[in-house]
Structures are given as structure tokens and as C-alpha cells.
Design the sequence.
């Protein structure tokens, strides 16, 4: 039985071509390889993940608990972003300003703007307390003051 010797190929970014492993070992230009190894790793910072359509998705709501809505995902409930719209929905998702509502509650909230305004006021107060922001900073992010 004859054993096949498998040749491992690497791509050399210095030569910009495919080379064998032996050629890579004997390469005199190893400074760039060692330079990559010496670079310090960045400190980890939490960023909410992005899903389809390059939008943030987050399951951690910062809204206070209430009997009117749920802050935890429940089967059959829909996610309601408090600050809607094309530009504010991803920001609302990023900062945790959303709640879970049943289908009937969600329809009711979209049909009654005064109830929606009350929820936005609660959300703004929660946001400013949680992130230690002022009204002007909130206005810069979301474009309007609801208090």
C-alpha cells in the first residue's frame, strides 16, 4: 500500500501567490508575520448583534415592569419598538427601548396615539435614567423630546 503525501498550500501575502508550506518556512520575509503576532488585542466592548437588513436585534429591554406589557419575550407576543420609523427603530432596538405586546394590545396601541405618547414618555425617562443622558442628548439621538 502506497501512502500519498499531502502537500499543504498557503497563500503568501508578500509574494501574492500560492506557495507550499516548505517555501513558507524558508521565507526570509517573516517580519510581517511576527508584526501581526505582536499587535495587542482590543479590549472587548459589548455591541448588540446585527441581523437581517443590517439592523440590531436585542432581547434585553430596559423598560420598567408593568402589567400592561411584558419586558420578556413570550410566545405569541409581538415586539413593539417604542420609537418607530426607519431611522429610530434600530436605535430603539439598540438601546433596549421596546416591549412585548399581544396582537390586540399592539393594534390598540397603534390606533390610539395618546396611549403611545404615554409609553414614549415612560421610555424617554427610563432611557435618560439608565444611560445618564440629558434631554438634549436624547434629542440628538432620537430627534424629539417627549417629556
Sequence:
Amino acid at each position: 500500500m502506497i501512502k500519498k503525501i499531502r502537500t499543504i498550500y498557503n497563500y503568501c501575502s508578500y509574494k501574492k501567490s500560492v506557495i507550499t508550506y516548505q517555501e513558507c518556512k524558508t521565507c526570509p520575509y517573516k517580519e510581517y508575520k511576527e508584526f501581526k503576532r505582536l499587535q495587542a488585542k482590543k479590549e472587548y466592548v459589548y455591541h448588540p448583534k446585527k441581523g437581517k437588513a443590517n439592523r440590531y436585534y436585542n432581547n434585553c429591554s430596559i423598560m420598567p415592569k408593568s402589567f400592561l406589557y411584558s419586558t420578556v419575550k413570550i410566545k405569541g407576543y409581538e415586539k413593539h419598538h417604542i420609537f418607530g420609523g426607519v431611522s429610530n427603530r434600530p436605535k430603539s432596538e439598540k438601546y433596549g427601548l421596546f416591549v412585548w405586546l399581544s396582537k390586540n394590545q399592539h393594534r390598540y396601541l397603534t390606533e390610539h396615539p395618546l396611549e403611545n405618547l404615554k409609553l414614549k414618555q415612560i421610555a424617554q425617562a427610563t432611557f435618560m435614567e439608565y444611560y445618564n443622558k440629558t434631554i438634549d442628548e436624547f434629542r440628538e439621538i432620537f430627534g424629539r423630546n417627549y417629556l
